[in-house]
Amino acid sequence: MKDSPPTLRQDLRLLILEDFSFTANGGIETVRLSLVPEFARLCPVVWTLPQSRISNTIKKLSSLNGIVFEALNPSRFTISWYIARLSKTISKVENLFPYGSFSVQISAWSKRVHLESIIKKHRITHLLNLGVFDQPILTLSVPVFGIVYDINYQPSIRTNCMNNLLFWLQKAAGIIAVSNFSRDQIVTSFPSRNCLVHSVPIAVTPPPHLSPVEGRLDELNQPIFFYPASFNIHKNHGLLLRALALVYEQGYSFKMVFCGAYTQLLTGSRILQDYQLEDARLFLANSSSEFRSCIQAYGAVEQSHVEDLFQQATCILLPTSYEGFGLPLTEAALRGIPVICSDIPPFQEQVSLYNLKNGVTFVNDSTPHAWSISIINTLNDLEQLSNPDEENKHAWKRWTWQDVANSYISILQPGLPRSSATNL
Q1: Which of 131, 192, 234, 405 is the most buried (most CB within 10 A)?
Q2: Whole-prediction pTM value?
Q3: pLDDT at residue 102 above 60?
């Protein structure tokens, strides 16, 4: 981390736009709460997001210095407010008759008018959208950039999102991916637009004080496995459950903890529409009561609870087949917690980025048997893991949120020196 305070760049006035329709979690939430404050140390920042999210965002931020909040919702009785009301009226009519998407165009016009008023009010020079998903790009009076986390969209929305990403690449000043892997995927899909696609790896927040691994056991002195990930197809919860069942059959005792959006459905009785997720739920439901008692699933939890689970964990298991970046690997390694993970490019990229010497085991075979062997090997080596690798614990300094923010600024304003880690 740099000791000297950065020089505030008054020639750059940044509008941060958050207009995705869902509530952010995981890596997106980390970027929101960690990157924006770092921007505010470098230049004046205006953060525009739905009114309903402003108070909660303020509560979660560690620093508000230099950040001005503006609601994405138009103020009452302004031009953009009247346009928005017109859009809602037209939308109701379109729901009755197949007139097309005129209301969507009107809504975009309303948003554009409102954002232009914010741009003028705060003398904004650049706009950064915190996430490019299915929202259309707006043509504004300042250069527009967007962050892409990955392109592993759900099948039901993939076509729309990919078409929308193409529109962004046709109109935006640039797209910034959160890893070299994500950038390569975008470039492969849209090779003619490669010059507009950049990569800046995201960073991790410095971990708190750690207890030794030998202190991270449950009340029965059993090891605790932890998997922080939403319950999605590519996260491979079913694969992990089958691997753990094999470990359990070998006579090993443990506790397995899941957290992340919808993971509570794993231990529920509701039939799930997706057959792969339902297969994972059914496998657990049909397992013995003894094995089921080893499994805990909390669903989405607050970041403070996630940190508590990290502190309790003996080992982190990450069987995911796809990640845009996959922060839990580095978060665990920097906390001195052993990691068993899939052998996928984003995870390899992190090990290289942070030069993680020890504590990460890659499984290059996506079968329950291969995973069970790696888990058993780790359980047999727990005595050697009581002293976390000291070099890993300080590796976060090799790539910080300040480095990330500086790299973004150099993309927004070409010609500035760029941090070397973005060129890995």
Answers
A1: 405
A2: 0.85
A3: no
